[in-house]
Amino acid sequence: MAKLCEKCSTFVAEWYTARCTASRNKSATPQKVVSPHHQTLAVVHASAIDECSLCYQLIQGLGYKDPIRQRDAKSGILTVDIDSPNSPHSIWLSYEVPRDEIHRGGWNIDLSGRKDDRNDESYKRVAYSTLTIVPALKPVLDYISGNLSCTKDALFLCKKWLQACQSNHPTCQVASPGPLPTRLIYIGGSCLKLCITEHIPQQSQYATLSHCWGLRKFTTLTTGNLSSFLNEIPVDALTKTFKHAVQITRALGLEYIWIDSMCIMQDSAHDWKRESALMADVYGNAEINIAATSAKDGTVGCFFERSGLWRCQICPDPQTGELFDICPGLTGSREDPLGSRGWVVQERYLARRMLHFTDEQIFWECDGNAACEIFPDGYPTFEHSKVLGYQDFRRIRKPFDFHRWTEVVSEYSKSKLTKRSDLFVALAGIARKFETALKSEYVCGMWLKNLERQLCWTSDGHANSREIPPLAPTWSWMSINGAVNVRHWKMGYDTCVKADQTSFQFASDDERFGAVHFARLRLRCECLWRVTMIQASKTNDPSDRRYQTCLMDDNLSFILYNEIDDQLDDVKTNEASKNQPHTVYLLPIMHGLEDRPPRPSVFRCVGLVISPSLGSNHMKCTYKRIGHWVIFKNSPFHVLRGILAECDSVGTGRRHEFAEVTTGADGSNNYFIEII
Fold first, then answer.
1. What are phi and psi of 675, to 5 degrees?
2. Cβ–Cβ under 8 Å, residues 286 and 208
3. Torsion over CA of 233, 235, 239 and 242, rounded to 10 degrees?
4. What is the pLDDT of residue 669?
5. Is residue 601 pLDDT above 80, yes or no?
6. 526: three-class secondary structure by DSSP
7. Are both 81 and 170 inside the same structural domain?
8. Total domain count for the chain?
9. Which residue of 95, 133, 473, 628 pairs with 89 in a disulfide if CB–CB is 3.0 to 4.6 A?
């Protein structure tokens, strides 16, 4: 069991007593335990050096806070809230610091609700470190030999996870062995060598590697060294990460590994194009994917040294024998170097099994289980993984449905690509899988089935921009270099546009999942409102253009919420003009009733802000998307549309704004516009 100092021992005893009281009295209100701790952080540091495991965890939780500023922290307390006896309990270590220090930023206000010990208003209590107490599933020594001072020591656990998955998880198996990659690295002999897979047994199992290339140059496969690598790959040609990946693969009992930079000729555009199109099979047919999650480049590796105090397991009452783990919160894969890499999104979704080697511990994820070194048999509940910050390491891939695609889009748009030209190909592998499941044609990150709803994506950041020259049509989320939100895709609203025709010209005739040279979308719409937008007084920030007042023929004004996709768009070309009135068009896409309990329901209308495209190669009546808008009204859409139509009639005077106007059998007009 973990060694604790006197202060931490007192806190654990007080917490356990309160937990037992709450367990006996089911109707008891949530309890709060507040226990005095070491007076300064310097004493906490000293206690950690003296091998108090809880103090060590608290120090690890300090994160980015400046050590110089820590010297002003006084009067430490530990606080824990007990909402339910069996739920995870969060611990806060908080201190009083001068208020002028808080204003410099980087502090978390204490959530304990405890008043400052001082009456002096120049001090404020802030939270320094947060941990979580959870019931342990088994004693630490049941599955840990020694103290696991390096993540490499847990490779035996990785093999157990793999064997358990192979034996017990039907959904993680492949119905029949798929094709092998063109090349694999053989690691089963005394030396490493590249092999052409048509010359090895086709049932051979292999691992793949997800890693960050980084900015440092390293040896890769080229046309010049291909023949020599087929004979032997020198050990000194491998980065530290590659060497560790080989060790992991051998520990798992596999003889082959696939590494992108060593199995695809990096100086051959033909080879790269052919092999990159096979990514779905490469990762989908691999026995396991190894992720160098915390390595920013090949010099870091997969294994990390750690203190023997990294694991804190306590037994407050030897008579009951109850065990508890005190766990640090994680930053999550998104904060790790590999988590921000665009290519890894499809690698994670395509792989059947995955091992994450982080600088804290090793994580396992597959369709049948999610586990880590602290919870080797799996998390007790999903809530435990959420509270601990481990949910990023329990990705369930299947099914490949539309809801799952929205998650892929959200995650992929947040990631980074070293080469923006890889935007399409880095998603092509998983797009192929989804196309088969969705039974819909794919183009530019979207699906022709229900394409109208997908138009209502939103730019999820103020620093987003469009590529110059553009890589995708403006109506696609792939036209934005930055995070997007696709929450509107799932709404059950009625649509008021219909995709009438689409025309595309792909950069390569044999690659439907690649880049496009040209993409035009023709929509049949019910209405198109021409408005003049001016800055609204909804916010005090003059640079906040999300709320706009729209004027229509000076007869009607209303406020809507909108965001412009591109911070460099022509409606905001410079500081002098970006807040000036400008004329745009509002294209309604969807509308419906939104429930907002306990508030009254309102009708919501969602649409696009579009502007005429003035390029010399563009046809008349062609528009480009420049943003989105939302209107909340107490009246249904048809009432709103009627009111606006009176002030903005689509009559003969406005027919030039449409690509075509036709008359239906019932005498009503059909209006068509084109967006590029």
1. -120, 135
2. yes
3. 70
4. 82
5. no
6. coil
7. no
8. 3
9. 133
CB 590 within 8 A of CB 630: no
Q: Is residue 547 part of a domain?
A: yes
Residue type, position 543, single letter: S
Nearest-angstrom CA–CA distance, 298 and 67: 30
Average pLDDT over residues 509-524: 81
The domain boundary, picked from 87, 110, 135, lies at: 135
What distances in angstroms separate CA 250 from CA 254, 257, 508, 557, 607, one per listed residue?
Answer: 6, 9, 40, 70, 54
Q: What is the pLDDT of residue 553?
A: 53
Based on the fold, state whether residues 669 and 575 are members of the same structural domain.
yes
Looking at mean pLDDT, say which of 215-229, 453-467, 541-555 comes out highest: 215-229
Q: Are both 304 and 346 inside the same structural domain?
A: yes
pLDDT at 142 over 50: no
Higher pLDDT pick, 540 / 485: 485
Which of the two residues, 486 and 53, has the higher pLDDT score?
A: 53
Q: Which helix (H) or strand (E) is 528 found in, with range?
A: none
Is 315 part of a structural domain of the chain? Answer: no
Report d(CA 286, CA 49) in Å as an integer: 44
Helix spans in 399-537 (H): 402-414, 425-438, 451-454
Mean pLDDT for the stretch of residues 306-329? 87
Does the predicted model carry a pTM greater than 0.90? no
Per-residue confidence (pLDDT) for residue 385, from 0 to 100: 57
Q: Which helix (H) or strand (E) holds 458?
A: strand 458-459
CA distance 359 to 296: 12
Name the strand (E) or helix (H) holding 442: strand 442-443
Of 501 and 483, the one with more pLDDT: 483
Asked if 165 and 46 sit in the same domain, the reply is: no
Domain boundary among 135, 167, 195: 135
Q: Does some domain include residue 419?
A: yes
Which residue did the predictor score with more confidence, 63 or 177?
177
C-alpha 155/C-alpha 54 separation (Å) is 26
Nearest CA to 636 among 664, 601, 585? Answer: 601
98 and 172 together in one domain: no
- In which domain, by residue range, is 593 found? 400-676
Least confident range of 292-301, 316-325, 456-465, 521-530: 456-465
